[in-house]
Prior knowledge:
0% of the residues are buried. It contains three helices and no strands. The mean pLDDT is 89. The chain is mainly alpha-helical. It has helices at residues 13-22, 39-50, 59-70.
Amino acid sequence: MVVYNVSIPENKQEFFQEFLELIGAEYEKKQDNGFELSEHQKKLLEQRLKENKKNFIPARQALKQLREKYEL
Length: 72
């Protein structure tokens, strides 16, 4: 069995469900209400906000380091 995770526009939902039923596929409908951070993730972000901004690495420099390290 192959499993796909797809996002369907609201206006194509009925057509897609009919198609899945036509081919005999099993499916589970989930409504995506957006992204939520876990409590652990929120705590980490709060800790980072309290740190001295002088210690931060500029985004361009961080990307450069990642490219060099992972040969991107």
